[in-house]
Amino acid sequence: MARRRILIFFSDTGGGHRAAANALCDAFEHTFPNRFEIKLVDGFTECAPFPFNHIPDTYFPLTTYAPWLWGALFYTSNARASVPVSATFDDFILRSGCARVLRKYNPDLVISVHPLINRAPCNALKNINPDVPFVTVVTDLFDAHGLWFSAAADLVIVPTQGAYERGLRWKFPREKLRVIGQPISLKFALQAPAETMHELRARLKLRRDDFTVLLVGGGEGMGPLRSIARALNHSHLLIQLVIITGRNEKLKRQLEELSWQIPVSIQGFVTNMPDWMRASDLVITKAGPGTIMETLAAGKPMILSSYLRGQEEGNVHFVQEMGIGVLRPNAQKIVRQLRAWLDGAHGQLLEMQANAKRSARPNAAIEIAQEIARLVDNSV
User: Fold this and answer.
1) Which terminus of the chain has fewer CB atoms gathered within 10 Å of its CB, N or C?
2) Where does residue 1 rank: exposed (0-12), middle (13-18), buried (19+ CB within 10 A)?
3) pLDDT tens, 48-80?
4) CATH number of the 4-186+362-378 domain
């Protein structure tokens, strides 16, 4: 039997969209071995004309050096009056390229995991083959941008009830919305080895009994990792620190050159993030949706160290509303919060840990794949 073809549109504007797409690929292969052939397409680099095909190259410098501008772009494009204008512009620059890709691969189903590459491929698909289903998988945890709901999708899958309510506010049909979760790596879903915390820490070459703090900044090592690491190093707290710098080799070298007063393990890009999270007592991270949901899947409380204005503010709201972490937006506040917890407010950490385990949806990618597979079957 020929494998059914699925096309996933994403873009490397941050690591989260690619990570979600990869998680879905793995989930389809794990749940339905050899049944689907999946192709990932970066909608900007492969479908947009010059200069818009270079939009992914602007994401890191823009969010790092001009976050205020990023926030302004988010807010101005996310108003009731501006979303139709933004969607029309996206459609104008992307539809022709999306149509070319769709004709090339002739998919049986199309998925978008990016709000800016959503309406254009959907419109192109409906013109080419209206019987092929189009699915949007939203990766904003709470304040989902209106462009997520601007396409005439057959199904929109959202990660939380808050994102579902946003969809309703944008007048997306209730019967086409599903709350399933955020697609994250299957390594968080598949049963972990039967290791105790002490055994896991020993394998990772960590001290077995120390309170362990994991400091991460996503795949690109974004956020104020260096200032937080320096503050923790001079805090005199009885902790050991794990820092994962991702692909940021410059940051890794800078941290390795510091004179460390606390036990520290400095890692670059890792493929065993579930192990590092499960070996830790607390995770400090920027408010990226993927890392937040991975931290929940590991059952750990978190401190959010930073967030992108607009795009990630809803993620902060989600974390605080669910009682799974706190926002402490500078290094000094993070140290003060840690000291308060370690000096006597440990019960709050335990409560957040329980809330995290209760809120976790580690199997979301598998559940999404199962939901989408039904659409493919029904389209035969």
Assistant:
1) N
2) exposed
3) 999 999 888 888 888 878 888 888 888 888 888
4) 3.40.50.2000
